[in-house]
Each structure stands twice: as C-alpha cells, then as structure tokens.
Amino acid sequence: MNIGKQIAEKRKNSGLTQQALAEKLNVSFQAVSKWENGFSCPDIELIPKIATVLKTTTDALFDYSAHSFTEYDVRYEKDGYFWGLQPNSLCYEIMKLKPPVKPYRVLDIGCGEGKDAVFLARNGYSVTAFDVSVVGINKAKNLADNLGANVDFFNADIRDYVPDTNYDIIFSSGVFHYIPLSSRGKIIKNLKKYTNLNGINVLNVFVKKPFIEAPPDSEDSEKKVEAWKSGELFSFYHNWLFHRNDEIIFDCNSNGFPHKHCMDILIAEKI
Ligand SMILES: C[S@@+](CC[C@H](N)C(=O)[O-])C[C@H]1O[C@@H](n2cnc3c(N)ncnc32)[C@H](O)[C@@H]1O
User: Could you tell me if 72 and 112 are in contact, meaning their C-beta atoms sit under 8 angstroms apart?
Assistant: First the structure.
C-alpha cells in the first residue's frame, strides 16, 4: 500500500498541481511532495479531506477494494436503468423553490445511475453528484454524455465524505438509511455547514414505525445500520426554516412481496 502513489495519481487525474492540492488542504507544498515521494504519510485526520478534494474514497486512497462492489453495483450492471429515467418528484419541488434563474450549485448524494442529477443539469443547475457504486457512476456519466448534460460525477461514500465547497441545494433521496447512527450528526453538520445562506437541503429517509414490518427484501447493508426514528431527520434541522416536513406511508412491491414503507421527507432552508 502506497498512499503517496495514490495521491499523486489522483491529483494528476484531477488536474491539480502539488501547490494547488496543498492550498486546498491547508498544508505546505513540501508536505504533499513528501507524501507523493513516500518520505512521509498524511495525518490520519486529513485522509477524508484528501479523499474529498481528490473526489475519491478513503478506501481508494489506501488502494483497498474489498468493499468496492456494492449490492447496487449488481443491480446497476443489468441492462436499462434500475430506477427508470423519470426524475424524482423532489426535483420539481427544488425547481419550484429555487428556480434556475442562475446556475445554482446542486450536490446529489447517492445519485445512483444519475437520472436526477442529469435532469437538474439539463434544467440549468450546476450539478455535482456522487455515489458509492462505481457501476452506477459509470452509467450516470454515460447518461449525461448521451444527453449532452454537464455533471461532475464521482465515486465516494457519504460516510467519509466532507464537501470541499458550498452548495445552494443539497439533495439526497433513498440514501440516508445507510448512515449509521454514530455518524449522522457529523455528516449532517457538514452538509448544513456547506450550504449557502438561503440554500436548501432536500432529503428523505426511511423510518421505523412499530406498526410496519421490515420489508422482506431489506439488504444486508441496511440490516447492519440502526433504523432511523420517526422525526429524527427533522430534529437535525430544528434551526432551519422548514418548507416541507412530511411523513408518508406507501406501498411497495419490490421483489414481488407486497409491503409498506414509512419515509420522512424534509425540505429545509438555511436562514
Ligand atoms: C435507493 S438508491 C437511490 C438512488 C438515487 N438517489 C435515486 O433516487 O434514483 C440508493 C443509492 O444510494 C447509494 N449508496 C448506498 N450507500 C451509500 C454510501 N454510503 N455513500 C454513497 N452512496 C450510497 C447506492 O449505491 C444507491 O445508488
């Protein structure tokens, strides 16, 4: 394992000089040079930030790939688009609240095969989007190319991602139930911090209700993460203006087993 080699390679792929990377990380140019030449290693606290700036994952920096093939990779490898190509209805709510009178900066977290990111980019937003699934991101890039949309897609894990710039709109659908209880506060604190004033966070998460049984097809990774409590997502945003805080129960028939889900939906504005 040579983290310096990974940093050098990914820095060059990102078109950054050693000096530019050093400035983004608040370290000296000599420090970056030493890492890349194998004379020293970055501090452990700096690793997630390096991964974010280089638009990669901490696993990739360590050249560790045991977790890189996700359950979603299997789904996304099939022909067609697993989630279809119709944009999420929340995209229309974004357009109503923040019409693209200028290229508002959007971050789509867990963008899957990219349908929503591409839709928003085609409607005039400046979109950055990532997903833990490499297969999903490759499909998303193809979708954008085929439709002539410009989206900054990259592969990353929300659990170790820290934004490196501010956004006007942070959007994530169907992803937060993968965030373990212990990381939720820290991750959401960063999303709030990196949202511009009057910017919005548009999020949803599956929540547990005592009267709804767990779906029969929940994935292994989902089972390992503590279920979100009803209202938990809203409580993280108590000091923002709520445009929407709904809890919905809906029918689902995934894998042929009729069951129900409960989901909390939040649209909150930083004021
Ligand atoms: C239910 S899909 C939703 C995809 C997309 N947001 C949509 O609505 O079409 C969940 C997505 O979250 C991604 N995901 C799961 N865990 C993740 C993580 N830790 N970091 C980033 N993405 C993750 C999966 O790869 C998958 O694409």
Answer: yes
Mean pLDDT of 158-177: 96
Cβ neighbors of 71 (< 8 A, separation 6 or more) are: 219, 220, 221
CA of 37 from ligand 1 middle (Å) equals: 35
Q: Which atom of ligand 1 is nearest to the CA of 174?
A: 1
> In terms of Cα–Cα distance, which of 168, 226, 176 is closest to 200?
168
Is the CB–ligand 1 distance for residue 157 below 6 Å? yes
Q: Give the pLDDT confidence of 93-125 residue by residue, as tens digits.
A: 999 999 999 999 999 999 999 999 999 999 999
Work out the angle at residue 153's Cα, subtended by the Cα atoms of residues 194 and 142, and round it to the nearest 5 degrees.
Answer: 160
Q: Which domains does the chain have, with CATH numbers?
A: 3-61 (1.10.260.40), 71-269 (3.40.50.150)
- Mean pLDDT over 74-98 rounds to 96
pLDDT of residue 60: 77
Which tokens in the block code for residue 237? 């945003």
- Please determine, for residue 65, whether its predicted confidence score (pLDDT) is greater than 60: no
- What ligand 1 atom has the least distance to the C-alpha of 70? 25
The rounded distance, in Å, linking the Cα atoms of 33 and 188 is 33
Residues 6+ apart with CB under 8 A from 205: 176, 177, 228, 232, 233, 263, 264
Residue 83 Cβ inside 6 Å of ligand 1? The answer reads: yes
Structure tokens belonging to residue 193: 């911090």
pTM, full prediction: 0.81
How many residues are listed for the chain in this entry? Answer: 271
Among 177, 169, 175, smallest CA distance to 156 is for 175
